[in-house]
Amino acid sequence: MSDKKSSFLIPVIGTAVILAGGIAAYIYLKGNTDSSIPLGSAKLVPKTALMATYIDTNPESWHKLQQFGTPEAQKLVTKGLQDFNQQILNDSNISYEADIKPWVGGVMIAVLPPDEKKTPSTNLGLPEPNILLVVGIKDKIAALKFANKLKVAQNITAKESDYKGEKIIESKGQGQSQYITVLNNNHLLLTANKQTVEKAIDTYKGEPSFANKEGASDLLSKGVDVKNSLAQIYVPDYANMVQKLNSQSKQLPPQALTQIKQVKSLVAGVGVDDAGLRLKTTVNLDPQLNKFEYQTTSAKIVGQFPSETFALVSGKGISKTWQTFVQQSQDYPELNQVIHQARTQLKTTQIDLDKDIFGWMNGEFGLGAVKSNQGLLARVGFGGALVLDTSDRKTAEATLTKLDNLAKQQSLNIAQKNIGGKNITEWQIPLQGALVSHGWLDNDTVFIALGEPIAETLANRQGTALDQSDTFKTVTGSLQTPNGGYFYLDMDKTTDIIKHLSAQSQLLTPDTTAILTSIRGVGVTVNSPSKSITQMEMLFSLKPGKGK
225-240 burial by CB neighbour count: b if 16+ within 10 A, else e? Predict the structure, then answer.
C-alpha cells in the first residue's frame, strides 16, 4: 500500500463506521462473533482470492515481542511505530493505542487477481493486484467512540451508495478513492477497487468464499503451530497464484509450469516465544512431480567445525541432489547447455564433472565460514571450509590429486604438512603462504579449507566444537528434529565481520548496529516427513531486553 493510501486509511475507517447503515441499532450488542479468527474473516473474501494474510492483533503476543532487544533497538522500534502512527493519522489528535487498538480485531489482507484491463502499475511492469482488507470489530462500543471522534475530520469526503442492500462508502482523501462497507457489524471491509467490495458483498450474501475454496478451509483451520501468533499466510493454490500475478506466465514453457505445479499449497506462520521470533512453513507438494529426495542428517558433521564458525550450511547427499538437478535440466535447453559446457571444459583437464566432482559426495556435508585474523585472508577477517563424509574415498583422493596437478600448472606450490597427526596438502602462493588446504579428518571425512589457519583449526582443534557452543545450541536447539540439515548464523560474530569490512569503506549506521546487536543468531532447518510435505522452521534468536 502506498504512502498516500496509508495517510488517510484510518480516517476512512472511521467514516465507514459512522455512515454504514444499521450499525447504531446493534452497537451495544457485544455477543461472541468470529470477527477475530482467520476462518471468520475468510468467509467474506471472494473465492477468487489468490492468498490471504491474517494479522493477529492480540496485545499479549505483541507485548511478548517487546521484551526482546537492546535498549537502543527498542527505542528504534518505538520511534518507528510513533512515526507510522503520526503518518497514518495525519497529524490528528487520534491515538492508535487509545482510539483504534481497543476495537480492531484481527486483520485479513486478501490478494485478488489483478484487473487485466488495467495497465501495469508495479515497478516490475506487472498489473497491480486487488487488495481487500477485512478488519474485525471486536468491540463495537469502542468503534463507535472512535467514529464519533472522527466526525470533525476535515480531510475526508465521503459518498454513499447501495449494493444489494449493503451501504458502500466511497471515501476520498489525499489519494485515490477507497471503498468501505461494514458487514453484519462485525467486519469492516476496505479496498481501492469498487468491484472488489461488491464481490465481497456477493460473498457475504452467499457466493463461494475463500473459506470454502478447495484446500483453503483446512489451511485456515489448522494454520501453523507457533506460540503467540503474529501473522499467518495462506496460499491454497500456489501455481494458480503465480500464474495470475505474473503477466508473463502465459509465455512460460510447459516445463516451467510443471516445476511451479510441484507446490500445491502452503501455509506459513510467525510467532514469538521465549527464544525469539519463529517462522514455520508447511508446503504441500505433488508427490508425482516432486523429484528431489529428502535425506535426514545426523548433524555429526557440525561437530567437525570450531566454535569460531559464524555461518554454516549443512545437509546430506550432494551427489543425489546433483543427479536430480541434471535430470530436471533436460527440460531447460539453456541450463542443459551450461552443464554440457562445464562437462566439456573439465574433460580437457581429465576431470569428469559427474563422477570426479559430485559422484563421491554422498554423505553429510557442511560449508562454513570461520573467523580468522591470520594468513592471506587476515584483511577479510574470515576463511571457509567444506567438510564432507564419503563412502568412496578412493575417488575423492583421485579427484584431489587431479586438482593438485591443476594448481601446479597455475604456478602454485604444492606442499605437504602434518598437523595433529594428519597429513595436509597446501596450495601455497610463493612468498605469501597457503591459500587452499585439504586433508582427511578421519577415514571417511575430507575437508577443503580456504585460508591457512582454517586447516590447522580443523585438523588440530583445541577448543570447543561448534555443536557444543552455547550460541549454536541456543539458536538451533529448539528447531525440529530429525531434519535435513541446518542454516546457522552467529549474529555477534557476523556483526564483527561486517564492522571489520565496513571500517574499510563505510561505517555502519547506529540504527543498523542496534538491530544487529539485538539478534543472537538465525537458525533454519527443513524436514520432510513424506514426498508430499515439506516443513521449514526459522528462528531469529533474540537477546532479552535489559532486566528481562
Answer: ebebbbbbbbbbbbbb
Radius of gyration of the chain (CA): 29
**Residue 160: per-residue pLDDT:** 84
Q: Which pTM does this prediction carry?
A: 0.86
- Contact 506/493 with Cβ under 8 angstroms? no
C-beta atoms surrounding 26 within 10 Å: 13
Residue 61 contacts residue 222 (beta carbons within 8 Å): no
Q: How many CB atoms lie within 10 A of CB 407?
A: 18
Phi, psi of 92 (to 5 degrees): -85, 180
What are the grid coordinates assigned to 422, written together? Answer: 594428519
Residue-wise pLDDT tens digits, 496-530: 898 888 766 667 788 788 888 889 999 999 999 99
The upper half-sphere exposure of residue 143, i.e. CA atoms within 13 Å in the direction of its Cβ, equals 30
- The partner residues of 272 in beta bridges, in order of sequence, read 277
Residue 340's DSSP bridge partners are none
- What is the Cα–Cα distance from 303 to 441, expressed in whole angstroms? 12
- Say what the pLDDT of residue 302 is: 96
Q: Alpha-carbon distance 473 to 50, whole Å?
A: 39
Pairing of β 166-172 and β 157-163: antiparallel
C-alpha 289/C-alpha 88 separation (Å) is 46
- 130 and 111 Cβ atoms separated by less than 8 Å: yes
Pure H helices in 89-164: 140-149
The answer to whether 541 and 523 have CB atoms below 8 angstroms apart is: yes
Arithmetic mean of pLDDT, 11-39: 43
Instruction: Take residue 305 and report the three cell numbers written for it.
Output: 567445525
Identity at 544, one-letter amino acid code: P
pLDDT band at 128 (very low <50, low <70, confident <90, very high): confident
Q: What is the pLDDT of residues 468-486, one digit of tens each?
A: 999 999 999 999 999 999 9
Cα separation of 388 and 297, whole Å? 13
Altogether, the residues listed in the chain come to a count of 548
Alpha-carbon distance 314 to 299, whole Å? 8
CA pair distance 501, 491, nearest whole angstrom: 15
